[in-house]
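From the pipeline queue, job 12 of 40. The input is one protein chain; the requested action is below.

Action: predict structure.
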Amino acid sequence: MVTFIEIMDGPNEGSRFKVEEGLTLGRSKADIIIKDGKVSSTHAQFAVDGKGQFVLQDLESSNGIHINGRRVKKVALLPGVIFELGRTQFKVVTVEEELALDFSRLITWRSILQDRLGGLEAPKKSTPITLQSFSPALRLQFIQGIQTDEEIILGYGPRKAGADCLDIELLDDEAPKEAFELHSGPGMVEIKIKAPGRVTLNNKSVDAEMLKDGDLISVGNTLIKVTYI
């Protein structure tokens, strides 16, 4: 039998991860990334105990591992066991060896959307989008918030960012559906803020402005540093 953990709720509900000794779970600096603001950067690690049983060990995380509301240092990964990291609930499942290859999966809202749209006919007409070159290219570095340590390099536009964007997805709980757009300008990139007040540039509320090296875009608890490369 092969052991997996499956996410039971939240935006990645249904995702399954194979349990392997030494793999870590965390918000950013881990082998398995859990998009949960209450999960530490490196939160827990799979290990094997003296009886040869898989366990999940807490790595001195801020919020620990919980079972039935009780905080524990480690949890035995037995079939049917339910535990929580941060606000994310997991269940331990096992499958036969021959089924394991196709059992792992990562569910995102993008994949859900693709599945739901898969049977729909493509529209007969679409409005063409004229691509704009970003020269120099733009780097977005997430330096604070749930996406800390993520980095996006953008070489063309226009680009859209927000909680409901297929382009630049913002995972912050306070991120608006449409946060901002990025458009090409003369030697720079222009930001057009779609949710004034909820999105700021250098702690100021603006509608549109040319981005400069070192500018900081704030969305909820997320802070994004802008640099040209």
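Job complete. Residues 2-108 form a domain with the Tumour Suppressor Smad4 fold (CATH 2.60.200.20).
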